[in-house]
Design brief:
Helices cover 29% and strands 21% of the residues. An eleven-stranded mixed β-sheet has the order 1-30-2-3-7-8-9-10-16-17-21, covered by helices on one side. The relative contact order is 0.17.
Length: 762
Amino acid sequence: MRILSTDENTIVLADSALRAPVTIAADRYGLNHILAENENDLFFAQGFNAARARLWQIDLWRRRGLGLLAGVLGPGFAAQDRACRTFLYAGDMRREWASYPAGTKDICEHFCRGINAFVERVRQGQAPLPEEFAVLDFAPSFWRAEDIVRIRTNTITANAVSELKRTALLQQDHERVDRLRAVLRPFRPQLRVEATIDRPEELIALLELATAPVLITRERLQAGFADVEKWSDPQALASVDVSVAGVRAIEGSNNWAIAGSRTATGAPILASDPHRTLQNPSLRYVVHLHCPSFSVVGAGEPALPGISIGHNESVGFGLTIFPADQEDVFVFDPSASEAEEKLIAEQVVVPMRGAPPLQVELARFAGHPVLRLDRRAGHGIALRTVWSEPGASPYLASLALLRVKSVHEFRSHLARWRLPAVNFVAADRAGSIGWFVAGAIPKRAGGFGLLPRKLNEDPWQGFIDNEDLPTSIDPPSGYVMSANEHNLPDSWDSSAQPLAFEWYDGFRARRIHEVLREQRAAGLADSEALQDDVLSVAARDLLQIVLATFSSQFLEAQPESLCAFLRWDARIDNETPHAAFYSHWVRSYLKPAILAKQDAAAASHWVADISLEALIDELKTLDIAQRRELLECSLQTATGSFNWFSFSPRRAVFRHAIADDVVDGTCFLPPAVVWSGDETTVHYGRSGANPYQIESGASFRMILELANWDNSRWSNIPDQSKPEPGKPTAPLLYSLDRIAKEIVATTRLVSDHTVADSLSYS
C-alpha cells in the first residue's frame, strides 16, 4: 500500500546509497513510520530521520563521547574530553565488529550515511541549522560507523564508584556508614581493605566527569587555558546545575509482562517505563521501522540504529537495569617485571577552541584504562570494566531482537548482549511471557568485587555465558517483572558465582508485586494506572514504625499537623502537604539522625548516600528506647521547621545542554511541570540537591497489548509524543492500514540515480 498525506514532500539526495525510494510518514501522535524496500535503505533512512529530528542532540552525543567538545566550545570542556577519551574503546576493531549480531557493521555504516546525508543538506543550506549550532557558532559533524561503537561512557556501569567510596570509608574506620549506603544482598561478605588508595575522591571525580552530561554556560564558555582543571571537578558543574551532582547514580526503571490468564483479552500485556535523566530533547526517540524482512516499533537512543524497547510482529520487549557488578578497580606496580610490557601510554592532543591544544597522557594497563599513574612511586590504579570489551557498545546488541519470533527463543538472541546489564521482560503473540538477565558479567579470579584489589594480572577469568544467566518463562504467578531490585532466584549460588551485591531499594518492586498479584482481568488502563502509581511503600513502612514505637496517648498529644501526617495514605502527590513534609523529615532530619547515631564522626556529606531501605533496617535493629528518642527528636524538629500552609509542589525540570542564556535572549528549557512520586514509587521522580526539583523519571513509557498491537500506548516527553487532549499517552500504531488513517505528513527520500516510483507493500 502507498501511504499518502495532504502534506507530501520529496527529497532528492545526490550520490546517496539509497537503492529505492523510502517513505517517512508522520502520524498525528508524533511517531514517524519509516517504510523501505530493503534493510540497507531502512537504516539509511533511520539515520536521516534521526538527524532531521535530533541533529543537535546526536552531534553533542558524538562530540562528548569521543572527547571532541573543547574543539568547538573551548578550554572549559577539555577536562571532560580527557575523561571521556580515557574510556574510549581502544581494542581491535575487527574483534569489535565481530562481537555484535551479524550485519551490525553494515547497519551502522548505512545509518551513518543517512545522518551524513542530512548533515550535508544542512551545510548546503537545504535544511535548517538547529538554533543551538547558530548560538554556539559551530557546524554539525559527519559521522563514521566506528564513532558509534567506540563510545562507551553513554551508559553507566557498576560498581567502581561504590568500590572507591567503600574504600574511603573503611580506610577511616567508618564501616557502619558503608552499611547505610546499601543493603548488600544476598549476604554481606567479609570486607577487608587490600589496596590502600590515597585521595579516592579524585578517582570518583574522574569517573563522574566521564559520564556527566554536557553543561554549557556562559562561565564555562569563557574559560581560558588556565581554567582547564577547574572544570575537571564535577562539583564545578553542580555549582551551576545541581542535577549534575552525583551524576553517576544509576536511575531505576520498571517493567512487567502479564500472562493472558490474568488479562481481559486473554493475551499478554507488557509495560516498560525506563527512568533516566529528564532532558530536552528527551533521551530516547520512538520510531517505526518497516521493510519486507521485519517491522519493529519502539524506542532507542537516537544516535543508534534499531530500537531497544518495543515490539516486532511477534514479540514485545522492555528492559530495566540489572545492577550487575561490571567494574573492578585494581592497584598495580608499573615497575614490576611482569607489568612493564602491559603498560602502554600515549600522548594525546585535545584541540581547544580559542586556545593552544592540550597535551595529555592516556595510559592503559593490559588494555584497561589507567585512572592514576605514578611511575616514581611504583604505583598505578586501573579500571577493569566491561566498557573496554569488544562488543560492549551500549544497547547496540538489541539489533538481534528485530527478528525474534518467540519468548522461548528470546534468550538465544541475547547471546551477544554486553552493556548495560539488564532485566528484559518479553511477551509473544502465542501467549508466553519471560524474564531474562543479560549482560557481560565477569567471573572473578578472587574476591567479590566490592573493594579494589592489588595485583598485576587480570582480575577476571572471562564472563558468565548469557545462556546461564537467570531466566524465567511462563511462571505460575502469571506475570514477570523487574524494578532493579534484588531478584536472583534462591537457587543462584552467589558465593561461587556472584553477579551483584549492590541493588536498588526494593520498594517499587514490592508495590508492583502488590498490585499485579491482585489483578485477574487486567487491561491496558490497569498498567497505565500502575505506571502512574505514587504510593510509597517506604513511607508506609516508616509510618508503621512510628505508630508501633509510640503509645496512642503520646501520639494523640502531638500537634494536629503531625497527627494528620501519621494518618496520611503514603501517596507522594502534590495535593496535600503530607508528602512534602515526609520528604522534609526524611531528607533533612531522619537521615542525618541515623548517620549520627551510627557514626558520630562521619562527615555529613555521606547523608546523601544513605539508602532508605538500609535506614529502615537500622531503625528496626535499635532498641525501643533508642528508636523512640531518634524518631521523636527528628519528627518534632522537622515539624517545627516546616510551613504546613505554604509548601512548594515538586516540579520536573527537563534540562538542556545549554543551561543558561549563553547569548542574551536564548533559552532552551521547556516549562517545568508538576511531578508526583519519588525514588520509591512506581511513578518515579528522583530529586537531587534541590528537593523540589525532579531530575529523573520516566520520560518514555510504553504499554503493549498483544491481542491487538494498534491498541498499544506510548509517550515520550517533553518533545515528541502528542497525545489526545486529556490523555497521558498516545496510540502506538503498527498496522499499515491503521497508520494510513492517521498520517499528517510524508517525506519521500529518493536518490538522484534511481527512479522515484511509488512504494508498494504486500
